[in-house]
Amino acid sequence: MKTKSIKYIIAAGLLCCGLSTTLSSCSDVLDEQPRSQFDPTFFTTKTGIEGGLTALYAHLRYLYGEGYLLNMYETGTDEYTYAQSADDNFKSADLSGAGVLNASTSRGDRLWNRAFTYINTASGVIENGEAAGIDASLLAEAYFFRAFDYFLLVQTFGGVPLDLGAGPLKFNTSPVRVSERNTVADVYTKCIFPDLEKAVADLPVSPRLPGTATKNLARLYLSKAYLTYAWWLENPKNIPTYPECTRNSAEAATYFQKAYTTAIEAINNPTPYALQPTFYDVNLAQNDRNSEIMLVADHDENEKYGNGGAGYGWGGGNAPENFAYWMETWNYTELKAKAASGADINPVQREAVQALGRPWTRMAAIADNFMEGGAWNDAVKVIDSRYDATFTLRYHTNFAKAGSTEEYVLGANGMKIYPNDVFFSWVPESEDSKIDYTVSEGNGNGNLGLGVMAGRPDFVVAVNHISRKKYPINWKIGMYRTDNNGGLGSPNGGSPRPWSIAKFSEFYLIAAEAAVKGASVSGSWTARELVNVLRARAGKQTFNQNDNVAVNIDNSKAMTDATPAEISIDFILDERMREFWGEGYRWFDLVRTQTWNEKAGQYRIAGSGYTDKDLETVTRTINPGHYLRPIPQTQIDGLIMEDAAKKAYQNPEYQN
Question: What is the CA radius of gyration of the chain?
């Protein structure tokens, strides 16, 4: 019989994602092969179990690099708002009145409809694996992924079902149309903690294949789960939970301590992981899958099945491609110039490189972060290399790569700009008074709201004029291909880069946050010393990606000297922003620490036109009930239950 994938979690039967694999082969990657049919007996075989394990890795493509889920965890935070070309997916998430967030508009369906399928697959591996002759270390991978998906779900929706139709945490093969949500406490204590603790015990120190789960990967999620649960127990801002249950705030200290201890154990025993020497090295496309990256949603430029589908276009609603970087990219291709011949030309064109790629203008960086008082204020930019290694701040001409034979284009002040030189730059807020934003005859860009500075050939805009139309691109997650062959390449499809999901660097911030919350520290590992490991690294710079030039800079002492003597949660959140900007961490961070309204309730940004430069203050309505996302309407509609029970299944903020 063919397995049916239907959209209610209670009907999630046997799913191996069309894959099988031979785990014992001499290949150094998971060997994905298509299968068109399954039945439950196949899943009791060694081959079937191995296929299920492979599917658990493959499903990450549908969660990471997926643009609409990134939107759900970034838009509406203090990092991003909706941009000029945004549709309702993004406007609703912003909670600023441009759209309405509800069970139909929230993109939580992208998580809900995938995660339960693979939770059930993991349960099938766990139930059948031992009898099929699967080693405990391999079964531990299934325990890891079941906890991994449940951790995403419980943070996003609150309590969710542990029983998918065959009993709590049992493998289900029979579609059912009723469901009951467990409490948050149940999900953590009955699944996430025991599954991750078993994964830590049974997983190998080093991966059996590149990118597979290890003890320290399980420790990362266990420490983060302990930390998140501790905040939930403490509940300092009295944020409601659902389904309603009692929580003992006195237990929070125990879990803060567990978070700290687990993270420190990994820091002290890092094998096989290590911090990269500079922050630039962590996110450089040519250095993907480096020693700091613990888990990726894999893609491969040359393998049909390494991308979850043929080619690199965009498969639409259920696409597994990595296209999230489009969303954070403004339409820089609308820059105009006069060429040497007098012809109009686009000096910066779409190119399959990390700094550019395909523009969609759906998510705009919020201006406050780049101004006085923000995490990227002018004082930070001077000494922190993460600023250069996070954003595309300077836009180099590439018209020659498009086949143009023009010698140069005219830039600001009528000066000549040659191939590969900088045409447009974002400059610090402190430079704003030196910029002339009035339309200058012949500059060709007066309608784009760009400015000129004396003696500079590049057009400029100060970061305090970031708008919904133009804003710094997130360089870290940008496009990269190896087949551009000196030209612009193929920038319109998804990126073949893996999406980095878990980084060893996060251990330092998890432990620091737990220490700030009262965990007893081990040796010299105070919150300040933990944070300073990453800050010292951020002071070192061997390559300036915006100028495309090697440098030899060491601001480590300045960075560590600037660290406050007493670390606060606000400072931890700023450091998490500087480390993980735009990667999908931020909503979880603000919800966990119950600072979402405080940090993101208001923001400033300029309007949606190119010439809009004056910042507008926007107020969001972030109610306590918004700390949980709505259960997707497809799930509610698929239940065959009394109307009152279906209504009660939804989180209270969205029961209407």
Answer: 25
- Supply angle C-alpha 93, 475, 411, rounded to 5: 110
Mean pLDDT of 183-191: 98
**What's the rounded Cα separation, in Å, for the pair 372 and 376?**
8
Q: How far apart are CA 52 and CA 142, in angstroms?
A: 9
Q: How many degrees, rounded to 5, is the angle at CA 466 between CA 464 and CA 469?
A: 160
pLDDT score, position 293: 98
Long-range CB contacts (within 8 A, 24+) of 431-438: 431/460, 431/462, 432/462, 432/464, 432/465, 435/460, 435/461, 435/462, 437/613
How far apart CA 475 and CA 178 sit, in angstroms, is 45
Q: Which helix (H) or strand (E) holds 119?
A: helix 109-129
By C-alpha distance, which of 131, 582, 508, 6 is closest to 326?
A: 582
Residue 34 scores a pLDDT above 80: no
When comparing pLDDT for 471 and 16, which is higher? 471
> What whole-number distance in Å separates Cα of residue 510 and Cα of residue 87?
35
pLDDT interval class at 27 (50, 70, 90): very low
Angle at 471 between CA 285 and CA 370, to 5 degrees: 95
- Asked if 498 and 643 count as a contact pair (C-beta separation under 8 A), the reply is no
CB 34 within 8 A of CB 18: yes
480: left (phi over 0), alpha (psi -120 to 50) or beta: beta
Q: How confident is the model at residue 446 (pLDDT cuts 50, 70, 90)?
A: low
Sign of the dihedral through C-alpha 429, 434, 435, 438: positive
Separation between Cα atoms, residue 622 and residue 598, nearest integer Å = 9
Question: What is residue 23's predicted lDDT score, i.e. its pLDDT?
Answer: 39
How far is it, in rounded angstroms, from Cα 336 to Cα 44? Answer: 62
Could you tell me the two tokens for 428?
């610090």
Measure the CA–CA gap between 505 and 355, rounded to whole angstroms: 23
pLDDT of residue 301: 67
Residue 528 has pLDDT above 60, yes or no: yes
Percent of the chain with pLDDT over 70: 90
CA atoms within 13 A on the CB side of 251: 11
Closest CA to 151 of 502, 649, 435, 652: 502
Could you tell me if 72 and 43 are in contact, meaning their C-beta atoms sit under 8 angstroms apart? no
Residue pointed to by tokens 């009951």? 180
CB 480 within 8 A of CB 495: yes
pLDDT at 307 over 90: no
Burial label for 333, CB within 10 Å (0-12, 13-18, 19+), is middle
Residue 10: what pLDDT? 34
Is pLDDT of 302 > 70?
no
Q: Which residue has the higher pLDDT, 42 or 351?
A: 351
Nearest to 623 by CA among 581, 654, 583, 588: 654
Q: Hey, is 572 helix, strand or coil?
A: helix
pLDDT over 80 at 364, yes or no: yes
The structure tokens listed for 143 are 């325990």
* N-term to C-term CA, the chain: 40
